[in-house]
Every structure is written in C-alpha cells, then in structure tokens.
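Posting this for the archive.
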Amino acid sequence: LLVPESRRVGTAREIAAACRSLDELQAALAAFDGCALKETAKQLCFADGNPEARVMLIGEAPGAEEDRQGKPFVGPSGQLLDRMLDQIGLDRSRVWITNVIYWRPPGNRPPTTGEIAVCLPFLERQIELLKPACILFVGGIAAKALLQRSEGVTKLRGRPFTYRTADGGQIPCLVTFHPAYLLRQPLNKRYVWRDLLQLRARLDDMGVACA
C-alpha cells in the first residue's frame, strides 16, 4: 500500500525531532524508507565538512558522482564550489555542506515537491543541530523550500534573508547560483563572486573566524 505523503512527512518529522546529534540524524535517514528515491539511488548522501562549522551550505540533490561516493558536491560542480570557497578563505574543514534531497533523483531530474517535503524535516533538524552562524543556499530549490519563497534564484541572489528555526532562532542567509549552472553559464560567475564577497563580509562583521 502506498503511504500518503502527509503521513510520510509526519513520520519524517517525528524521526528527525527525536535525533540528538548529526550522527543520529544520519543513521535515522539511512533507516528511513519514506522517500522512494532511496530505492533507485546507490547510497545515502548526507553531508560533508566540519560538524563544528559556523557556515552551512545547502544545495539541491546528489548527482552521479555524489551517489557513488556518498558525499555532496564531489563531482565537477563540487570541484568548482571548492575553488569558489577557496577564494574567500573557506574549505571543507571550515564549512558544512548538505542538500535538500539525500538520494540521487534518477537521471539527475529535479526533485518533486513531494520528495522535497518528505526530506525537509531532516534538513530543518540538521540546521537546529548544527546551529550555523550563516547559511548559503546554493541554487534556488533549497532557498525556496526553506525560506518559503516563490521567486527563482536570479531574483533571490544578492539579497539578505533570515531563516527562522522552530525554536525561534534567526539565522542570516544568502542565496547564490548552483555551480552546475555556472558550468553551463560561466559568464554568471561574476555574480557568484559578488555573493561570496558578501558572505565573507557578513562573516567578518559577525566575528566568525573561518580562515
């Protein structure tokens, strides 16, 4: 029997809320059967980086290389992301990188609204556990899901936003283009450079040591 989406989302929320650490959350996701993408993906792709990081990056979904390695942003777009972060003194030892979706969608198709909805409680809990000082949304899907916006990434980037956690916390956010898009449209790298400089300035203003 097909479990209704509302029930699967409710179950995801209960499981995520019970997790007291990022390790527990990863184990809970590995055991979670409420997202059909798990059946077609090679493995879970949870997160990468430093669990003590003050900067959190949130992308869209794993691709083929991410599915093979079980880590986000390790394919060509991830290598570009690493080079971009390096320009402002950040690397994977100083950030925490994850995605909205934890299993690769077949053929790298965009995730459906249902897939996003059932994975979202785990992402929201991940933010609560990490307690980052700042979030950078890499691509529009993550930003729209968590900030509850309808605009595309072109309209969202370059503007300051605040993500509100369930316990009333407020985390400053920025939105930028996904590096996979930049590989197709390299002229737009200049906009990402501005976004990264804005991120660096914001971290400096908050006294967040990254380098």
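The longest strand covers residues 170-176. The chain has a mean pLDDT of 94.
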